Fold these 2 entries.
Entry 1:
Amino acid sequence: MSQPVKVGLFVTCLVDLFRPTVGFAAVKLLEEAGCEVHVPVSQTCCGQPAWNSGDRDDTADIAKEVIKAFEDFDYVVAPSGSCAGMLSKHYPELFEGVQVWDERSRAFAAKVHELVSFLTDVMGVQSVEARLDATVTYHDSCSGLRELGIRAQPRKLLQSVEGLELKEMNNANVCCGFGGTFAVKYSDISNAIVTEKTGNIDKAEADLLLAGDLGCLLNMAGKLRRSGSKTEVRHVAEVLAGMIDTPPIGGKG
Amino acid sequence: MHITSPQFKQNAKAALADEQLQRSLTHVRKNFIDKRAKAAAALPEFEALRDNAAAIKNHVLENLDAYLEIFESNVISNGGKVHWAATAGDARGLILDICRKAGARTVTKGKSMISEEIGLNEFLENAGIEPVETDLGEYIIQLRGESPSHIIAPAVHVNMDQVRDDFRRVHTHLPPDREMSEPESLLKEARGILRDRFIKADVGITGANFLVAETGTTIIVTNEGNGDLTQTLPRVHVVIASIEKIVPTLEDMSQIMRVLARSATGQEMSVYTTLSSGPRRKGDPDGPDEFHVVLLDNGRSDMLGTEFQDMLRCIRCGACMNHCPVYHAIGGHAYGWVYPGPMGSVLTPQFIGVEKGGQLPNASTFCGRCEEVCPMRIPLPKLMRHWREQEFSGHLTPPAQRRNLKAWAWLAKRPKLYHVATRLAARGLWLLGGRNRRTGFLPFAGAWTRHRDMPTPEGSTFLAQWRKHTGAGGNAS
C-alpha cells in the first residue's frame, strides 16, 4: 500500500483566533480525501501584516520559522488564498538572492496550496458528502483569485453539496475592501468598498455568503450584520465539510 | 500644481461625502470595465500582445540612452529641434523661450499629462501667454480651474449640468437663451469657440504617446481631432514628452498600439493616430514652420536600474484606475497631485517625495486587479509595497503604526507567548460578543467598528482545541 499523503495544515492566525471550526473542517476534508493531517503547534502567522507594511526583516524572521516547521511535509495547505499566496508567491520574492533561503523558500513554496484547490487539483476530489438546503452566493477573495487562480474549484465542490443552490452575485471578483490593515488605516474608503460589496450580496438574495478567506469574511459579515442584512456568512470549508452546527460568523447561536 | 497628497485621508473623506462626484464615478465603475473586457475578449492573441508590448518596453529601458540619441538625430535630420529637460523647471523654461521667440500671445494645447506634471499652464499664464486647452475634457476643467481627475478622461468627475453652468459663466458673448439642453449642443458650442482659438494661436503644444527612434516621429492618439488642429495650424509645434515614451521602430509602436486603446476605452484604435515627423517640407500642403521636441526626464532616469524601473513601461492607458476599487470610491482628485489611481500611487512618491506622497501606496487593498489588467504587465501592488518598504526603513511609517506592528511581530516570533495571548484574546472577545457573537465596539479598533461590527471568536483557539483533541501525541507534530 502506498504511503498516505502527509499534509501540514497551516491554520492561519485568523482561523486560529476567530474561527476554529474552519480548521476542523479543513482537517475533516483533508482526511476524507485520504491525507494524513499534521498540525505543527508552533505556528503563529504567515507574516503578511509585516510584509505589506514594508517590514522585510520581521517578515523574514517569521517566514523562516514557517518554512522550518512545514518544509518536511509532502504538502502545506491553508484554508485561505491570501495566506497560501503569501507562502507560495511572496516567500520566494522575499528571499530572492538570499543564500540558502532562496532555494529553500522555492522548494517550500512548491508544496503550498489553498485548501479547496488542493482538494480538487491535487487530490482529485470531485464531490463532497454534505447536505445544505440553502441558496448560497460566493465571493472570490482577491489573493486566491488573482495570485492562485482559484475560481472554479470552490464552485465545483459546492455544486456537489446536496440541496445547495448557487446564486452568483454581481462583481463577485471585486475586492471587499478588507486588505488587512487597510480596513483600519483607511476605514472610510474600506467602508465605501464593503458597502458596494454587501449591496451586491443583498441583491443576490442568498441565504448564505461563502468565501475562502476569513479576513474578507469578517469584514463582509461585520458590514452585513451592521446593516441588518438577512444573509448569513460562513467559510466555504464549513459547508463542504458539513460542519454547520457552529453559529454563522457574527451571527447568533 | 498645489500638492494635497499629504492630506489624502481628508481628501478621501470629502470625496466620499460628495454626492455629485459619487454619481459621476458610476461611469468609471462600469463602462470602462465592460468595454475593456469586451475588447480583450474579442482578440484571442491579447495576452500574447501584452507580453510582447512589455518585452518591447523592457528592451527600450535597457537601451534608453541609445534610442534617445537615435531619435534626436532623426528629428534633427527631419528639420526639427530636440531640447533636453532634466527637470520640470527646465522644461517650462525651454517652452517659454520657444513661445517668446515666436512672439506668442496664445498657445493651443492638445491633451498632455506631462504638461500637467510640469505645471505648464500656470507658468505660461504668469508669463503673459494664454494657454488654451483644446481637448473637450481639458477645456472644461481649465474653465473650472481644476486639474484632471483621470489620465484619459480628465473631466470624468464633472456632470453635464456643471458644464452647462460653466459655459454660461464663461461664454458670455453668446445669447443667454441659446439651446443647451443636449450634450451635442454643448459640444457644438465648445467646438465653435475652439475653432477660433485654433486659428489665432501662435504656438501649438501637444504631448506624445510614442516617440519613434528610427524615424524621429512623435505620435499622438486621440478621439476628438483637436490634437491635429493644435499641431498643424500654428506656425510652431512643440511636443512635450517624457523620455520613456520612446520605441525603436514604427513596427514596435504599432504592436503597443494594439493594447493601448483596447485597455483604455475598449476601442480597437483611437479615432485619430497622428504621426509628426518634423516641420512642413517643401510641397507639403500644411504643417508648422518649426518643430520642437522637449524631452523631459524629471527623475525618470533615477528609476532606471531600481525596483521602480518596471513603472517606466506605463503607456498611460488608465486601465489600472478604471479597475481600482479605491479609485472607484474616491475619484482622482483625492490623490492630491497629477497622477491618480494605482499608477499614480507608484509615480507620485517618486516625483514629490515619499514624505509627501507616502499615503498613496499605503491606500491600497492589494487586490491586484490593476496588475491583472495592466497591458504592460506592471506589477503595481509590488511597486506600492516597495514604497512601503522605503517608508518603513526610513522610519516614515507613523510611529503608532510602527509600534503596533513591531509588538505584533515580536509576539508572532514567540509561539508560546503568542498562544497564551491568542487564548486570552479569544476568550475575552468571546465574552465581549456574548450571544450576539459580534460587537459594535472594540477597544483600540474604533476605525473598524465605526462602520461595521466585529464578529467575535468561538471562545478558544484552534490550536488549544487541537492540543486537547490530540492529547500529547496524535498527529500534533
Note: The two ends of chain B are 60 Å apart (CA to CA).
Entry 2:
Amino acid sequence: MSQGNTQSSKVQTTGHVWDGDLQEYNNPLPNWWLWAFYLTIIFSVVYWVAYPAWPVGKGYTTGMATITYKNDKGVEKTTHWNTRALLMKDMQDAREFQKKYFDKVAAMPYEQIAKDPEMLNFVASAGKVLFADNCAACHMSGGQGKRAFAPSLVDDDWIYGGTYDKIQETITNGRHGIMPAKGGADLNEGEIGNLANYVLSLPGESMDAAKVKAGDELFHGKAACFSCHGADGKGNKDIGAANLTDKIWLWADVPGAGSADKQVEAVKAVIAGGLNKGVMPAWSGRLKADQIKLLTTYVHDVLGGGSKK
Amino acid sequence: MFDHGKIEKNIGLMLVLTMFTISIGGLVEIVPLFFIKGTVEDVKTPEGIKMVRPYSPLEQRGRDIYIREGCYLCHSQMIRPFRDEALRYGHYSLAAESQYDHPFQWGSKRTGPDLARAGKKYSNEWQVQHLIAPRSMVPESVMPNYPWLLTTPLDTSDVADRMAALRMTGVPYSANKAEYDNNVKEFGADVAKQLHIPDARKNLTEQAQSGNYDGDASNVTEMDALVAYLQVLGTMVDFSKLDNDSFVKFR
C-alpha cells in the first residue's frame, strides 16, 4: 500500500471515479512506441497502394506493383504483383542461371556429357538432388536398391537394360514387371521344388542332381519358363525377364536364407506366387525432358552402373 | 463528448460492441472470399469436364483413416508457391484441389513431407511397405509403424451415410437420377458412377479389387482405402493440358 501511495502522489489520474474512491491512473504509452505504431499505419497505406489488398465487389484492388515473367510459350507478360507470378519469375531466373548447363545437357549426346568433366560435375550435383527427391525412396539414397523391392542401380546387372536409351525409357514411362504364378493348377508342390533346385543350380549352387534334372525338363517344357527367361536362363531385357544365371537375387532372398533348404523355399515362393509388383512409376508427368536426361546420365555415369549394351 | 462510462457500466452493451469490434478482422478478410470470383479456380479439360472431382467411396474412406490416424499432425497437404517447394513437391496447390475436402488437410506443420502431390509418385507396394514399417524404406524416418491397417477389414457399412453427410455440406455426391445426370455432364460418366450414393458399397468393393492396393485382392482392408486415397492426392489436375501460367490471374 505504501508503494501505491507513493505512486499516486506522482502519477496523474484519468479523473474517473467509481464507487466514490476507485480511480484510474493515467500512464500514457512512451513516445517511441506511439511513433512506431503510427509508422505501421503509414506502412499499411503504402502497402495497400502497392499490393493486392482490399476486396471490392467480385474482385479486389490489385495494387501498383507489377511482375514481368515469360510463360511457357515464351510470351512476356506483365501482371499485378502476386505470389504465383512471383514464383514463375523465380523459377525462370533460376532456370536462366542454369540455362547454359541445361541447354548443353539437352543438346549433347550422352557419350559426350560423360566425357566432359565440367558437365559431369553439374550432373553429379544437380542429379543428386533429383535422385534424392524422386528415386531414393525405392532405390535408396546411394542407388544400392532394396531386396524384394527395387533393383540396385550401381551394379552391372540390368533387368530392362542399362544403356542410356533404356534407362531414359525406364524413367520416362515407368515399368511394371509381371511373372505369372506357377503354383496351384499349373504345377504341383514337388514340381515347383524341382524347378527351384534347377534355378538355384544355374548360378552354380550345388543342388540335388536328380531334382535339378527334373527341374531342367520343367523349365524347358511344361512350365515354359524358357519363353521369357530364355533357354539358357539369361533372361530377356526387352520384356524385363531377369537373368537367372548370376548370383544377383532381387525377389527371393537367397543370400540371406542361411541354409540350402531355406534358399529353395525362397525361390519356390516366387515361382509359386508369381510377381506382380515390380512397379516403377512413370516420371514423364513430374520431370521435364532435360531433367530425365540429366537423371539418366546420373544413373549411368555418376552412380556408375550403366552398360554399353 | 462521447462518454464511455455508459459502455463500461452496461455489461450487455459492452459485450455487443466488443464482439462487433473483434469480428471486423474476420468480416473484412474472410467474408469477401465468398464473393470474389476466382477464389476457387475453375479447372476444366478442353472438353469442359471438371478436372477436380469428389473422392470415390474407397478414397473417401481412406481419407477418414488418414484423419483417424492423425496423419495431418505431421503431414501438410499444401504446396506453397515457392521455388524450393516447387522443386521438391511439384506444382503449387490450387484452392480448387481441396474444394471437396471437409475438413481440408492443408496443415501448418511438416514433420514429414508434404503429401499434396504424393499420388502416383510411389508404387502401391512402396506405400504398403512404408506404412507397415517406414524405416524399412527410409532409414532416417521417424514415422510410426501402422501394421494394423493391413490386417483390419475396412468397415464399409456406413460409407453411404458418410457420403450423404458430405453431400449436405455441398459435395456433389448424387442421391437421385437428376443429380446423377448432372454429374455426368460435369464430371463425365465414369466419375459420375463413382459419385452415386446408392452404389457406394458396390463401387468401393470394385475399386479395391481392381486397384489391388494392398496386394491382396481377396478382401478390402483399411490399407486398401488409405493407399487408394494417397495415390489420388494431387493427381486430378493434369497440368500438361493447361498453360503453365493459367492460374496467375486468380491471385
Note: Chain B has two domains: 5-34, 57-243.
